[in-house]
Design goal:
2 domains; Tetracycline Repressor, domain 2; elongated; Arc Repressor Mutant, subunit A; single chain; mainly alpha; 205 residues
């Protein structure tokens, strides 16, 4: 059934939220490279010019979606970090939940790391970088608990970066199908994450 467009002067209860919701649906269908403001407006049932009330251009909408994705990941990672008092087990939980998030939302995950965006991606976008930093904080906290004292901020950052690089690469391989024959279930993903984190821990600690 076609989405009804609103008549001129008819107000939308929360236009920005509706646009982001519609954009999220289009993203899952089309991927970040093909997402357009026109398609989002059509799905939200508003005029073609309505998105410009909140987003300067397509990149602005994509940035808001990416930031929203990182906020969801931050919530995901914060819960995983608190799942166990043992930092080694907490780190395993972080790795598993991170890869599970990427596997469950592949197109959003790709957008979060710059797919469909030209130039330098999100490196200069304050909204996205702030959300990305919040999603990284739980990992940093667990690494701080894991490393023997005294530990410097640089050591914590380096340890967290090694872990992040590893699970990010693993997530990319899950998304592009490289590991399709090895990871066919959540149980298989959990075991692969556990083994991967064990390897990382040998190097980090």
């Amino acid at each position: 059934m076609a989405t009804r467009k609103r008549r001129p002067g008819e107000k939308h209860g929360d236009l920005k939220a509706a646009l982001l919701q519609a954009a999220g649906k289009r993203l899952e269908q089309d991927g970040p490279e093909k997402l357009s403001l026109r398609a989002v407006a059509r799905l939200a049932g508003v005029s073609q010019t309505a998105p410009y009330n909140h987003f300067a251009n397509r990149e602005g909408l994509l940035a808001a979606l990416a930031a929203q994705g990182f906020e969801r990941l931050a919530t995901n990672q914060a819960a995983a970090a608190q799942a166990n008092d043992d930092p080694r087990i907490a780190l395993e939980c972080l790795g598993y939940e991170y890869t599970r998030f990427a596997r469950g939302h592949p197109k959003l995950y790709r957008l979060m790391f710059g797919a469909g965006v030209g130039g330098e991606g999100w490196h200069d976008d304050e909204l996205v970088t702030a959300s990305k930093s919040r999603s990284f904080a739980p990992l940093r906290d667990v690494i701080c608990r894991l490393l023997p004292e005294p530990v410097s901020p640089e050591q914590v950052d380096n340890g967290a970066m090694v872990c992040w690089a590893f699970v990010h690469g693993l997530s990319a391989m899950l998304i592009d199908g490289t590991l399709a024959d090895r990871v066919e279930s959540d149980d298989a993903l959990a075991e692969l994450s556990r083994q991967s984190i064990a390897i990382i821990l040998d190097g980090v600690t």
